[in-house]
Amino acid sequence: MNKVIKIAGAGISGLSSAIFLKKFGFLPEIYEIKSSVGYRFKGDFQGFENWSSDKDIIDILKDLELDINFNFIPSYTFKVCSPKRNLKTFESKERPFYYLIQRGFKEGYLDYSLYKQVENLNIPVYFNCKNLPKDIKIFATGPNKASAIILGINFDTDYKDINLMICDNNIAPKGYAYLLIVNGKGTIATAFKKNNNNPNVYLENSIELCKSLFNLKIYNQVKFGSFGSFSDENIFEKDNKLYIGEAAGLQDFLFGFGLRYAILSGYLAARSICENTSYTNLAKKMFSNSIKASLVNRFLYERLDNSKYEFLINKLSYQKDLIHFLRKRYKFNLKRRILYPIAKKILL
């Protein structure tokens, strides 16, 4: 068996697959078109989603023996701002809703920390590769189309820590905006479907709203933008090549959380090579039902106008166990199986 496994892309999924391959006794090599890992991130705060599985995501990664050498901050509480500017606080006593991490090439950030694991395992990474080798085995090249857009700013502030989600179609049409502040570092961003004109207006509206809600002072702001690709007909293998992370279309349809999919698909690809088993079968077993459930969740979410946002947020504020409520929405149960063909026809 050829022990050298070539990987295209040094993102989260590519780095993860290389780490697991090396631990399985293979010789991975990574080829990256950019000049560094985490190239497009500047310390952006993101959420490591923790409600869609029965087990805590950090415990899942520890069970896989991935070093947790990046900073992660558990979020047991977050606020939601309604279209009428009512603020509701949601709490979880069971476990964090999500873990806040930062992206980019700096100590403690997720991208940097995974790269350091790769470096410590003596896995070669070739940057600025404009022409990939023909014998690439794993493609971790990120999204191939823009289904959704994220625009935001990173900044310094003297305001206290806060996790805020904003539901308002004038701020983020059929999406959501958010404000995250940790230890004087903040991110404001708006995420919405691609087919909207003049997207910068939504970011400006998001910033102005956050400023007015909290008398927020923003210093040293740096703008960023990214996009995500979504698919429920995920291509995991083609022409004996494996596709992981967003290259396989792995992304949550509802709110766009993809970190869990990136790392776990990297692990499954490595495992399939090690065990000489079908990566497609492993990936479908782990991801397909939750992807389909999230498509139905997206379909239902897009039926909401601002008045329905207002009603739903108020109703959810009376939930005693919101994380349990969210987890149930990611089960591909009978209701979601019935709605799935309708959601697929309308959204895809």
Index terms:
six-stranded mixed sheet; FAD/NAD(P)-binding domain; alpha/beta; globular; 348 residues; D-Amino Acid Oxidase, Chain A, domain 2; 9 helices
Protein model, in words:
The protein is of the alpha/beta class and 348 residues long. Among the domains are: 4-39 and 54-67 and 104-145 and 230-291, FAD/NAD(P)-binding domain; 148-228, D-Amino Acid Oxidase, subunit A, domain 2 (D-Amino Acid Oxidase, Chain A, domain 2, 2-Layer Sandwich), CATH 3.30.9. It is 34% helix and 24% strand. The strands form 3 sheets. The chain has a 7-stranded mixed β-sheet with strand order 6-5-11-12-13-10-14, with helices on one face. A hairpin with a 2-residue loop joins strand 12 and strand 13 (185-193). The radius of gyration is 20 Å and the shape is globular.
Helix/strand/pairing category: alpha/beta
Fold-level CATH name of the domain at 4-39 and 54-67 and 104-145 and 230-291: FAD/NAD(P)-binding domain
Strand/helix succession: EHEEHEEEEHEEEEEEHEEEHHHHH
Distance between the termini: 40 Å
Task: Provide the fold topology.
Layout: E1 4-8, H1 12-23, E2 27-31, E3 45-49, H2 57-63, E4 73-75, E5 77-81, E6 87-91, E7 98-102, H3 110-120, E8 125-126, E9 138-139, E10 148-156, E11 162-166, E12 176-182, E13 185-193, H4 200-214, E14 219-228, E15 237-238, E16 241-243, H5 259-275, H6 279-301, H7 306-316, H8 322-328, H9 334-347
Parallel strand pairs: 1-2, 1-9, 2-8, 5-11, 9-16
Antiparallel strand pairs: 3-7, 4-7, 5-6, 10-13, 10-14, 11-12, 12-13, 15-16
Helix pairs in contact: 1-3, 1-5, 5-6, 6-9
